[in-house]
Design goal:
53% of the residues lie in helices and 16% in strands. By secondary structure, the chain is an alpha+beta fold. It has 2 domains: 109 residues, no CATH class; 55 residues, no CATH class. A 5-stranded antiparallel β-sheet has the order 4-3-2-1-5, with helices on both faces. Helix 1 packs across helix 5 and helix 6 packs parallel to helix 8. The longest helix is centred in the middle third of the chain and has 19 residues. The termini are far apart.
Length: 173
């Protein structure tokens, strides 16, 4: 259920989400209606695999953890049919709602870590905001973060600048 909560929070934040299921079913339909084993459910967010333990290096790592030579992995959209499959084919004691706050914090952390100087430059270019040695841009970043140069900023500060760019674009119009 944690993977579903992560997936739902990631979708709310416009991330690409695929659910990843390790199982022994002969075909995907058996996962809903058959007598199968679901070994593990994880979520792929923007191309990176996660479960309750954090980032999973690869699908092979997931399969090695399961240690069943018959295990298979399939990818699914996070929809009501998928949720039904998880509810009927797994043993769970908590619901997605129980993990909502924790999953939200995790996904927000992904956003903070993923912003680079290049991301800021690309978005600024898209929004027609001058940034290369631009006095106005440096004043804005200094006011926002206390630092005028992106090179001196932490990932959290870069994230703050990235989030502010849309507003700066509107101010300039």
């Amino acid at each position: 259920m944690y993977a579903i909560a992560l997936g739902e929070e990631a979708l709310k934040n416009d991330k690409e989400v695929m659910m990843v299921v390790a199982h022994n079913a002969d075909n995907p339909e058996d996962l809903i209606y058959g007598d199968v084993d679901v070994y593990h459910v994880a979520v792929e967010i923007d191309g990176t695999l996660y479960d309750a333990g954090g980032e999973v290096v690869s699908v092979n790592e997931l399969l090695n953890f399961i240690d069943n030579p018959y295990a298979k992995v399939d990818y699914f959209a996070l929809d009501d049919i998928f949720k039904k499959m998880v509810r009927t084919q797994t043993n769970w004691s908590k619901t997605c709602e129980d993990y909502k706050e924790e999953a939200g914090e995790f996904v927000r952390g992904l956003e903070d870590k993923s912003i680079s100087k290049k991301d800021i430059h690309d978005l600024a270019d898209k929004l027609n905001i001058s940034w290369d040695n631009d006095a106005k841009f440096m004043r804005r970043t200094k006011k926002l973060t206390g630092k005028s140069h992106l090179d001196d900023m932490t990932s959290e500060e870069l994230s703050d600048v990235y989030k502010a760019l849309e507003g700066w674009s509107k101010e300039d119009k």
